[in-house]
């Protein structure tokens, strides 16, 4: 769907109206996943594997079932086989089937009259485990004689000499690498490691399931996609989709981690078996052990550069581990790694390696941060070695319209050069630095997409408007959608209320991911508004007894198109709504689309920090984000996305990591030992929004939700490396690692 | 005929070809032809793919027109967080 006009003057889009969910959230009125209860409700609790890898010989639930108050116990036997291998992996991650694949893997679940009884019952379930060899480190899991996490899943085209844990072999690129490296004056080749990190959403997974004896079920849950939850659960429980209604609660953060299911099918199975509503709420320990972190990674990058800063060739070998299952995230890492560069010769290769860890779940721009971290670190090292300005080198090599991208297609208009130029012109880039301080920068990239979307827009009798859309609001989409409808209809933002539909109230919508909602749902909202406008103009034309195309819509009024149409008093939306029943019935606008044209996204981050040479502790002093939003519908939310992604990336760079012991057990499943940045750790983060209209959206909107997590990893690495005079090659850069580097 | 660029790791099932020529006028015809010419691509296509047509990435858009001189690149199905 094409851009309306580059010169459009907006009245509502681009302003910062009140957040529609703000008061509810600060007063406690908002209903999250754990907030709903039902008469006769049972408490569901999960039994998790104490071992990193163990065959389940048997599960004896008899003693637990005999406990007063225990109403149902389920294991993998209580689920259908899924209809495809992807869903089967999701199900097997929810509930171990024959083998516990990682520490914390769910092996059984109980529904009881209280939490106390449920916890007692878990202790009475006897699981006979045969402990198997385990492997949690990506390098260890690759070697030929490594313990195999799942038999029969290895790739046939895995590199020679690697183990059966290697899955998902990928390669992208073009050009003659050998010739390119031969032209280089300097070649740097390095190896990088990143730890698995968790999305760190504040709200744990929670749901309430009810299933009646007739097989009809309702599920209330915190999720990024109620339609996806319905599809997964119906498949796993052998239900027709129509028999399961899923309602998304308010959501306390998702960041990709709530695009799948963990407890929802279990709650439904427990409800089916007990005949009672069942609520399951994870505690934080379970969130870390049982819900998805990112991939961990081990990456080699080799880049050649001329003395004046032109990259001649680039190669990366990426190894990701998405936990105990095959994982396609490696594809996106391999495609993203060099996306910011205009290269004649580039190749990325990648493999996924299974380890005894939880199954990876998406996390903002899945796969891109760790790949671009490695690339941007080597580019910075080359700049240091050759005495070149790192921003000038990025500009010299920046991808632009006409560049054959590292993943194949030729770019159309993109905003990378504009973001780099904005960074160069910003006072931050030339501000002086003190002792033990360093400045780092990095480019970032993400694909974005649109996807399947439905919107209904209903005109109320008083001329106000209700919008029904199908994507949980994780970043301000209700406000942005109301703004776009107000813009199109020519009425006030306060005259519109946007709500999130359950799965029975609106057609299918893809999950809230891919930075898609403001782009795709916004696009569909604009079209739904235009549909309603066309209907309103049609009614007015009948009233005025003139042709339909002789009526135009301007600023919330139907007006004669010109003098030839006749002289009529313009009719407001409220006047038209008031007589809708007399002129043909209710008025509503609808639009359904599988939206494309989202357009790729680039960002540039600058960071200043100081490292204490005695402790290795890093203090972030100044942080500036430059990103192209196409058109910022609600700039405060856009800034929030840019700041939030930066904060998560800063945590990833400095502190956050899943730590496993030699025994394969997770050692830090809690926020005390898994340290996320809090407000007092950070300076104000300045967000510089660039607006280069996206030609694929009527208002020029581009998704902004994911790119901002990509650059911080390398930006902080480059800043720390420059501050201490030693290059850093591993994340997180916790104080002991920095001290070790300083001491050489 | 439309030239479709195949990503590196799929070339093991296209006899090493980096480009495959297909007789197609739409997204759907491209993937149908790819499966017919190289059946080894079918499992991957069934798992989901995108097509970049003249620089714009399309997911599942069967009726999207493809011109003989279009740049067409087969890509994994786009996902996100």
- Which chains share the greatest interface? A-B, 47 and 25 residues
Tally of helical runs of chain B: 2
Q: Please write the CATH class name of chain B.
A: Alpha Beta
Main sheet characteristics of chain A? 7 strands, mixed
General description of the model:
The complex is a heterodimer of chains A (744) and B (81). Chain A is of the alpha+beta class and 744 residues long. Chain A is 29% helix and 24% strand. Among the domains of chain A are: 22-29 and 450-595, 2-Layer Sandwich (Aldehyde Oxidoreductase, domain 4); 42-133 and 200-290, Aldehyde oxidase/xanthine dehydrogenase, a/b hammerhead (Aldehyde Oxidoreductase, domain 3, Alpha-Beta Complex), CATH 3.90.1170.50; 412-446 and 599-744, 2-Layer Sandwich (Aldehyde Oxidoreductase, domain 4). Chain A contains 21 helices and 26 strands. In chain A, strands 3-5-1-12-9-10-11 form a 7-stranded mixed beta sheet, with helices on both faces. In chain A, strands 7-15-14-13-8 form a 5-stranded mixed beta sheet. In chain A, helix 7 crosses helix 8 (264-274), helix 10 packs parallel to helix 11 and helix 11 runs parallel beside helix 20. Chain B is globular. In chain B, strands 2-1-5-3-4 form a 5-stranded mixed beta sheet. The longest helix of chain B is centred in the middle third of the chain and has 11 residues, at 27-37. Chain B has one domain (2-76): Beta-grasp domain (Ubiquitin-like (UB roll), Roll), CATH 3.10.20. Chain B contains 2 helices and 5 strands, in the order ββααβββ. Chain B is of the alpha+beta class and 81 residues long. The A-B interface holds A 86, 157, 169-173, 199, 255-257, 259, 328, 331-332, 335, 347, 349, 362-366, 407-412, 446-451, 513-516, 594, 596-600, 696, 706 and B 5, 7-9, 12, 47, 52, 54-61, 64, 71, 73-76, 78-81.
